[in-house]
């Protein structure tokens, strides 16, 4: 029987996929609540945010069944999270804000960028393709979230580094794999690096240049 450390080394990518799902589900819920959607709308937006990026990754890598269909328990977990989070926000009289959405979104970005890159590397794709898969896993759910709530996707429009940070974090995972680190350790370091970089970008106001007509 494997001890906990052994389990982590083998299933670490799954752990970070779970963290990403939970974080993005919460960010989608906050954004949907901010837009004053009804309960069905909130759960739908939350699900798109949590599952959208991984679904696109699975389509492009020809992985079947999709990760959330293979592990359908996470659909029920997502619904439960939505209901509990809504109850918590109402009882605590918390106001959903765009800024509040950014923090779980940063966690999801790091977990999915690193985990998506590692999963693609495990499928023996070239490094650049693995990094692109990590970026798509990390950003596409948020793109769907913003489209559904009738906004230009923040990943493309707010000028605070987002996709660039996911891209950088993916290369960290690739580099650590070339150093022959265990996949879980590579994903953990890549995820933490990406999360910290995104938080710094938010706190310090880092901005990408905008097109000037």
UniProtKB/TrEMBL annotation:
Q: Which UniProt keyword terms apply here?
A: Cell membrane, Membrane, Transmembrane, Transmembrane helix
Is Phosphoprotein tagged as a keyword?
Answer: no
The Glycine transporter domain sits at 15-89, 103-176
Which positions make up the signal peptide?
none
Record-linked InterPro entries: Gly_transporter (IPR005115)
User: What is the predominant subcellular site recorded for this chain?
Assistant: membrane
Question: Which residues span the membrane?
Answer: 6-30, 37-54, 74-91, 127-148, 160-179, 185-206
Which Pfam families does the UniProt entry name for this protein? Gly_transporter
Topology with respect to the bilayer: Multi-pass membrane protein
GO CC, alphabetical? plasma membrane
* Intracellular or extracellular location(s): Cell membrane
**PANTHER family, per database record:** INNER MEMBRANE PROTEIN (PTHR30506), UPF0126 INNER MEMBRANE PROTEIN YADS-RELATED (PTHR30506:SF3)
Protein name as annotated: Unannotated protein
Origin species: freshwater metagenome
